[in-house]
Amino acid sequence: MRDWLIPWLKSLGLHGVLLAALLLGWRSAPTPPPAPPPPPEIIEAVAVDEAAVQEQLQRLKAREQAEVRRRERLKRQRLAEERRLRRLRRRQQEERKRLQALAEAKRRKAAEEARRLAELKRRQREEAERLKRLEEARKAAERRRLEEQKRREAERKRKAEEARRRAEAEKKRKALEAKRRAEQEKRRREVARQVSQTVARIARAVERVWLRPPGFRTGLSCTIRVQVAPGGRVIGARVVKSSGDPRFDRSAEVAVRKASPLPIPDDPEVAGQFREFNFVFKPTG
């Protein structure tokens, strides 16, 4: 029995090595082919129990088939797990995308709400500023209106006061003017009276010193231009309008000079009219 068992075990071991190599080649990446086994020993043919060998081969084949089925089952499980993992990753990715989209939507909504609130605040601020400007403009306009009203009232009062002062001044002026005119008229009449009296006194003074010329005829008269210095002193006398009688004219001129100083009053206004004047000499007798 030892004579056929040893070769059979060697054959079984060789099949095991080949089966292991096949299994390793199927499960892992290809590897360089193993070195060729050494040439089998030349075994002497031994008679073995064919039934035992077949039985052993059947068991080996059954194990190989079981191993194949196990590997196929593991492969199916692995593929199923891979599909499950892919589905899980896909669901996770979809959930992540959904959450990202939701977060993005929330972010956009928050940003939009922030923009809306900012815009609302800006508009409210602008509206408040606009209302503030309107109120300030209204107050400024009211101040200007009141100031203008005060100015107009002050101007009205000023004009009324000015008109009152002008009327009062005009009234005073007219009163003074009337008084001045009355005084002037009074003065004029007084001066005229004094001038008239002075002319009469001069005429009497001249007539007192006049010497009647021979052949005098009553009613003769001549006009003499008389120049008088202060105090009534006669400094010039000449006939400017003759009576037609040279002797009468000459006698009148001499009489005027002899009557010096003439009776001229001290009143400057009256005396001023006699600095140089025309004297009509017309004796009465």
UniProtKB/TrEMBL annotation:
One of its GO terms (biological process) is bacteriocin transport. The keyword Chloroplast does not apply. It is found in: Membrane. Its main location: membrane. It is a single-pass membrane protein. Residues 143-190 are annotated as: Disordered. One of its GO terms (cellular component) is membrane. Residues 194-285 form the TonB C-terminal domain. It comes from Methylomarinovum tepidoasis. This is Colicin import membrane protein. GO terms for molecular function: toxin transmembrane transporter activity. Gene3D superfamilies: 3.30.1150.10. Pfam families: TonB_2. It comes from the Bacteria. InterPro entries: Tol-Pal_TolA, TonB/TolA_C, TonB_C. Keywords: Membrane, Transmembrane, Transmembrane helix.
